[in-house]
Amino acid sequence: MVEALIARGVREIPAAVGAGKLDEHMLLSRRLVAEAELRRIVVREAGVTFLDDDAVVGLTVSTTGPVPVTTGVRLRSGSRVDADLVVDASGRRSALPEWFAEAGLRAPLEDRQDCGFFYLTRFYGVKPGCEMPESKIPASFALDYGTVFALGADNDTFSLTITLSVDDPCRKALRKPDCFEAFLHAVAHSAPWISVGVPISDISMMSRIENRRRRTTTSDGPIIGGIVAIGDAALHTNPTLGRGISMGLMHAQHLAQVAHLAPDDPVGFVEAFSAWTDGHLGPWYDTQVAADAATQDRLAMGILGERYEPVDTQASRFAAAAFGLAAHDEVVGVAVAKMAHLFASPAEAFSDAEVASRIERFITGGGSFDRPPDVPDRRTFESLVTQ
Ligand SMILES: Cc1cc2nc3c(=O)[nH]c(=O)nc-3n(C[C@H](O)[C@H](O)[C@H](O)COP(=O)(O)OP(=O)(O)OC[C@H]3O[C@@H](n4cnc5c(N)ncnc54)[C@H](O)[C@@H]3O)c2cc1C
After folding, report:
1. CA distance 140 to 17
2. Whether the CB of 243 sits within 6 Å of ligand 1
3. Residue 206, strand partner residues
4. Ligand 1 pocket check for 81: Cβ under 6 Å
5. Percent of the chain with pLDDT over 90
């Protein structure tokens, strides 16, 4: 799979954060390039049938046992597909609650957080004779009133993205290409990129950004057996950290390992799969929700030209020191890189005694990280995008 993606021009770079480099690699690609290759690979798999012009519109359900069990799906074309296990992999707009309601089932449990910001993204090619800047993680740079992202992709392309609050009075002005690019030139994080870029797309807007977790197992057990959701259909976080595909693949890998257990115990299978999802993917959802609450406060104050200061707790000092130190301390950098690339949970990454003591020494030594001086303040931003 990785070789096939690279043959299509997908870029492979070491997984790293600052001074911390891992042995693993990350792949950079525009969505369609990677998805088209994945589709070509899946089509060649024995036993896979694509129903191209069709879609799932509902479930078929057996209610003969104490807990209902899914027996298959109904398709838009009017036909049905019987199944030992139905997997809802239909993404963040999954209609599972409607299908449950239509089948007379209780509603799935949902946690939902509106993120309160939107994305503007444009893709670029590299100007002839120029070099693409190095892609780094984190790919984002937070300003008081927005966030700027720069990330390489396949075949000498890259994307530049700005997020702003949905309440920002400059949100429409920033969609004008001249304003969008003037601002990217003014931010040190994006300036080297925009300087070598030739636009190859319009500016696309992505709104309705949310974090959402959906569970079909309640404290009374599964609402229904024989059906699980994976990927974004089960839980998704806003795209800021670029984790959705990795989390979806982790989910799919686990499903592949255990799917053979479903036919014999469709209800127990759903319960065990839910527990695995909560235990292995839940922590990433929870940390994103906490981070996004702070982001909303930052943006609300940033619009007013004010600076958001996070509540000063031991945990917030620890996190700020860890991310700051990662830039030049290899040991802390590796711990942060493992966490950023989902190889270790925050608890696992920072439980190492050496990592923790380096961070504590930095904090007790009075260390702090000033933000770079060349960040456009709110007044500069407004004059750039309203000129
Ligand atoms: C703006 C943006 C930027 C992102 N950037 C990144 C990034 O840099 N890195 C990263 O890892 N993740 C990123 N993500 C997240 C990533 O795209 C998702 O996490 C990932 O695509 C989830 O995969 P999925 O297979 O669960 O769902 P999807 O990719 O949404 O696929 C769902 C599929 O189900 C099909 N479908 C839907 N309904 C039905 C139906 N009723 N019947 C049959 N088929 C149906 C759809 O057509 C689609 O093909 C980004 C997301 C957004 C919105």
Report:
1. 12
2. yes
3. 119
4. no
5. 81
> For the chain, what's the residue count?
387
Q: How far is the CA of 91 from the centre of ligand 1 (A)?
A: 5
Q: What is the mean pLDDT of residues 286-304?
A: 90
- Report how far ligand 1's centroid is from the alpha carbon of 84 (Å): 24
Look over the chain and give the mean of its residue pLDDT values, rounded to a whole number: 93
Torsion, CA 197, CA 200, CA 205, CA 210, rounded to 10: -80
pLDDT tens for each residue of 52-77: 999 999 999 999 999 999 999 999 99
Task: Choose which residue among 135, 213, 232, 284 to substitute to test ligand 1 binding: the one with the highest number of ligand atoms within 8 A of its C-beta.
Answer: 232
For the entire predicted model, the pTM comes to: 0.92
- Reduced to 3 DSSP states, what percent helix, strand and coil does the chain have, rounded to the nearest 5? 40, 25, 35
The candidate with the shortest Cα–Cα distance to 146, out of 111, 113, 173, is 173
CATH label, 114-208+378-386, candidates 3.90.180.10, 3.40.50.620, 3.30.70.2450, 3.30.360.10? 3.30.70.2450
pLDDT the model gives residue 239: 86
Q: Give residue 298 CA to ligand 1 midpoint distance, Å.
A: 28
Ligand 1 near 89 CB (within 6 A):
yes
In the chain, where the domains are located? 114-208+378-386, 292-364
- Protein residue whose Cα sits closest to atom 7 of ligand 1: 242
User: Using one digit for the tens of pLDDT, what is the confidence trace for 330-377?
Assistant: 999 999 999 999 999 888 888 889 999 999 888 887 766 666 666 899
Least confident of 32-41, 53-62, 263-272, 315-324: 315-324
Output the CA 38–ligand 1 centroid distance in Å.
13
CA 138 to centroid of ligand 1, rounded, Å: 21
pLDDT tens sequence across 232-252: 999 999 888 889 999 999 999
Show Cβ contacts of residue 63 under 8 Å, excluding neighbours closer than 6 positions.
Answer: none
Q: Which of 270, 221, 295 is nearest to 87 (CA)?
A: 270
